[in-house]
Design a protein that fits this description.
The protein is of the alpha/beta class and 306 residues long. The protein has eleven helices and seven strands. A hairpin with a 3-residue loop joins strand 1 and strand 2. The longest helix has 22 residues.
Length: 306
Amino acid sequence: MRIWSMLLSLSLLLAVAIASGAEEELPLVTSGLNGLPEIEFAKLSQQDLNPLGAKALALHPEQWKHGETEHFIYHFTRSFVATSVSIEAEFHYRVVAKELQREQPPGDTKSHIYIFDKTEDWQEFQSLGKLEKWTGGIHSAGSLFIRRDPRNKFAGNTLGHEVAHLIMHRFYSEGVPCWLDEGFAQYVSKGARASYQRARGYIAKPRSHSISAADLIPLKALVAFLDPPPDRVETFYDESERLVRFLVATDKPSFLALLDALGRHQPFEKAFLRIYAGRFASAAVFEERFREYAAKDAATSETDGG
């Protein structure tokens, strides 16, 4: 606990310094007990078999440093950036695991996180990996590749969202439907981010965005998408998050049972009607109530982690 308290103090001091500093003026290294300890690549407890990871490390290989914590292995160029990410990643891990009411699987592998803290390096990786230009992070086969601008005091919700994907991948290695994967990541990361900020003295509440009734995607279509629809990406994310929030609020144990069923690739409607039996008279009644909920003014809900 003492080392994490020291790391937290360091991250807060760095955040203040970073808020007004230019990227080129930032220190290149934070050494000593207060930083994430560096580990030689060959001495990492686990190696990443993800081909995209190999591509990342092939970019400017002389710059990469490495380290690890209880649940993650980090690849980075500047220690103070990695220290901040490592604190947040472990925090988000605890929040997500608590939300899922799951323990780490025995003999579980650690997830690898690749941190790009320079715009030009991230753009080069985007081109090499053929990623969408708008993306600030991507989860791929159990590894995370993320852009982290050290000048931003608060880096937004990207890290928590992607860490949620990493953990879902651990617990449900065969995958879950796209709406559930994205919706849960949005739901839990909003609450975790607000909790993380409140723990550091800021007033913060998670915000769930409402969707007008006219813009809602029919549930049958929403749960069938294999990927977010390119022409309705924002609506897909917001509605998926609202659906997860609605299911959790209706009955949390039933939501977790539904998650397990969908993780075994059971059809949504069949699993839903069985697990939520007695809560809704029919699938049509469920959709009607969800549409009313989704169109309400943005609701506030908290997901706190210890």
